[in-house]
């Protein structure tokens, strides 16, 4: 009797473990890895890079990108720009459709932007479109966007999910749950079919997408894996076709094992150390800030510590940025020994010496890579200048709170990913009134140069102002740019159409799966 | 009896209230908020978001709002999973964690008891030594080492089983997580069973049974197993606790969307409502289980009722 009961129990638990996989064998399925769940699939409540990656498969802005990162028409077939650069007229595709067959009209873009900036929406990216002064739907297929100032990166902004059109009818019908599977309408290549939080987001081909005929993959699954090692195992086992990242520890081994399946490419993403400019010792001490910056051997750091092909950073704006030539630190041409010598005299100038060394705290968020970088920099500063550095690792939310508090931080680890391909996304964060200006940099001259740049219609003139602003800012050393990240993916040989690009955007509809041989 | 049950039920309320208040204060006391990010928000935007989640109100008011929501059975919206409510997340996560945990306990009991018994019968033999050294290894190697090794071997090299969870077919994806979770428990239960079985087999009543000419199988099944199981039974409490905490690691490694993973992610993201919801859910579960045991005692033993 007891034995039967036990058997029954085992059987019932096992049988409750879910049925067989429902995928039809004839479908072309792409399995991708992402490192975290989106906050939301309501493009206005989303925030993370992972959310944007998923949203780019579902929706489409007026403008889009090719696989290799060139701007290309999206929901708009074409556009005209007025001579003063202040008015853009977009001509929407007549065959642009939502996944329920409704036409995508100019109204939907107007509604989207109005909802984005409405305080009631509480959107993270509410200020993303602050340069737009007015939107007008002239007719169903004509959208007029007026700008307060010429904004040459407008087209790049319009590829971002925050500016995607919204379907007013579906929001009115479903309210807060309009972005759930079954409810969410999309105007991009795919429709959301399932989202199991912490596990997987599944989407199917959108039969109504204007470019459906050229979309090869029928089903895309974004698998959520917080552990890079799990993702690697699943790639090795053939369960994942495209990884979101590559674990740092096994990088050399992976390079050897997978050869050209490993894609490493420059990425508009800066790793930097910020100074707390509102408190001593860094307030009013540019000599000290420059000394610490110069004493970091960035070449050694990217070669020995990070080791995944990163570029040493001597500028704030990453190389590869559209229509821009980053200006570099004046000391960049020197070798490390010469840099250290200058750093030593600056250090003395700032009032420190062997007998009276600078003592400082360096904060970083818990991660093996950040710890190793901090250890290396600690020893570089000690060897070159005699600085006594205390390393403090903090949980990310704690570090962020401390940085915002500006009370106890001195030097802290931070990074910035470009939201669009323009120098403005990097340079604007150091303007006095920008919320992301976490070092607390205040320079009237810098702000004025940025302001002048913003008023230029001529791209070359604008660029000169931006470069001048960067040069001005670098000389003040408000922060220490350390290196520019690279994007890292493993891409299965059965996936075709992959393109590397500096924004690290990879639309699933550009990809296809090679038929099994 | 009814009075006794009611009395017990009422007694559980202050405990639960205390858990709620303490947990609420603790999550809010942790530095950093749910909407802090490297990409700092402009103050106006931050204010809008805080207002939307009532984070701009005084803590006491927030607590009142939370408790009044609880009374209506509402655990609130998740701060990090903005499209989901906490109840929905617990609803998807808990059944998974429970299933994997139950399967692991069943597996541990079946394999642990049988291998322990076999080892006890062949005490000192080669087989005994193999089983016991396997058990020793099982106890000493932590889950976060065992899991990747099993994945590498069975999923990556041999390709017998899926390496991950999402999209993997049917029941096969349960095998590796359940084995990983059960392994240390199998080892422990095998050692316990062996020791207690050797002890029991040396007793007089077993000798009597042998003298009566009963076969080894009958002696084990009818006479020895029950008394030998007592230490294993009393180990079940700690075993269940170990499996519940161990499941956090297993869920992370295999990418299983269970409650353990939601709890850890929730804590790191400062998802106040999610963390609180899970704490309250577990607290209620434990209190309810204790309550049932208390009431059953009352049913069995009238003296308890009259105390």
Written account of the structure:
The complex is a heterodimer of chains A (517) and B (307). In chain A, strand 8 (190-196) and strand 9 (200-205) form a beta hairpin. In chain A, the strands form five sheets. Chain A has a six-stranded mixed sheet. In chain A, strands 1-10-9-8 form a four-stranded mixed sheet, covered by helices on one side. A four-stranded antiparallel sheet of chain A has the order 4-5-7-6, covered by helices on one side. Chain A starts with a helix and ends with a strand. In chain A, helix 8 packs antiparallel against helix 10 (336-349) and helix 14 (444-455) packs antiparallel against helix 15 (459-476). Chain A has helices at residues 2-15, 49-58, 106-117, 154-157, 168-174, 228-236, 251-258, 286-294, 298-306, 336-349, 368-385, 396-405, 424-427, 444-455, 459-476, and strands at residues 29-34, 63-65, 71-73, 76-81, 87-92, 132-139, 142-147, 190-196, 200-205, 219-224, 262-275, 311-312, 359-365, 388-394, 411-417, 479-490, 495-496, 512-513. Chain A has two domains: 2-242 and 491-513, Periplasmic binding protein-like II (D-Maltodextrin-Binding Protein, domain 2), CATH 3.40.190.10; 265-487, Dipeptide-binding Protein, domain 3 (Roll). Chain A is built from 15 helices and 18 strands. Chain A is α+β, with helices and mostly antiparallel strands. The model of chain A is unreliable at 13-23 (pLDDT under 50). In chain B, helix 4 crosses helix 11 and helix 4 crosses helix 12. Chain B has 307 residues and is mainly α. The model of chain B has no long low-confidence stretch (mean pLDDT 87). Chain B has one domain: MetI-like fold, CATH 1.10.3720. Chain B is flat, with a radius of gyration of 25 Å. Chain B has helices spanning 2-29, 43-52, 59-71, 86-121, 126-140, 143-157, 172-201, 204-211, 216-228, 230-254, 259-269, 272-300, 302-306. Chain B starts with a helix and ends with a helix. Chain B is built from 13 helices and no strands. Classes of the chains: A alpha+beta (517), B mainly alpha (307). Chains A and B meet through helix 1, strand 10, helix 6, helix 12 and strand 15 of A and helix 2, helix 4, helix 6, helix 10 and helix 11 of B.
